[in-house]
Design brief:
binds S-adenosylmethionine, seven-stranded mixed sheet, 13 strands, 33% strand, alpha/beta
Amino acid sequence: MKGAWIVDQGCVDVTTCFQVTRRLHEEQTPYQHLEIYESPRFGRMLVLDGAVQTTEGDEFIYHEMLAHPGLLTHPVPRRVLIIGGGDGGLLEEALKHPLDRATMIEIDSAVVRSSRQYLDVISAGAFDDPRTELIIGDGVAYVTEGRDPFDVALVDSTDPVGPATGLFSEEFYAAIARRLTPQGVVAVQSGSAVYQHDLIAMVRRNMAPSFPTVRTYVATVLAYPGVVWSFTVGSLGREPGAVPVEEIARRTEHFGLRYYTPRGHHAAFDLPPYLRAAIEPR
Ligand code: SAM
């Protein structure tokens, strides 16, 4: 294999190799090993503990699909909580909505600093938006100890390892539900829809005691293991599948979206029977 390659271990018996041309940055932070690479196909890539987190080439798919289904399920979101998401791509998508405030809790300041330095096209100025409140800290502690209410919570975490383990727990989702207003919605990345059925089932099981409606949807995130990635929404109010196509079209008209569409919203929740059966709580 000509040139340099990085290996992302998607699961025990499948890896993805990416050709890279340069490593732009590398550091061991108090929480994880952080690297930023230049690659011919995906542009610049953020890698944490050997796992690809985001790339310039396909970040719009992941960030649009983590942000908008949940934000559109809430009829009038004004206050949004983002947990993780240190690259700022999710924040950028959320701020397309007419919000009063977006509060972001990221545990690792090095991810924010190096993303602003090397991956600024992903956050596209969102960190400097007057509606942004950036807090460096643990999302589990913030949600458990704080009092401020939110309309929508978005969780853009790494896999459930190290500091992110608690972000997939029943207690964490219960604490989120207590911080949400009556029509409140939470949306989380819930792992590969190809290799992590157990993780998706666990997220659904842990959300169910606190959210009357729990729905999983998928999108094709090209640089992620298995490509078909899952997201899970918990709603205290509206059913995500009940959001009229016309309302989605009206509310996203000026967003300049490249992946998420009004009909795509509904198609994403229409899971194939084999996948629905594989992720049903056991
Ligand atoms: N999209 C990526 C994925 O699906 O793997 C995640 C990207 S984002 C960079 C993940 C962020 O979650 C990292 O910056 C990490 O530092 C942050 N994180 C992990 N555990 C956290 C916690 N307990 N509180 C706040 N942020 C956390």
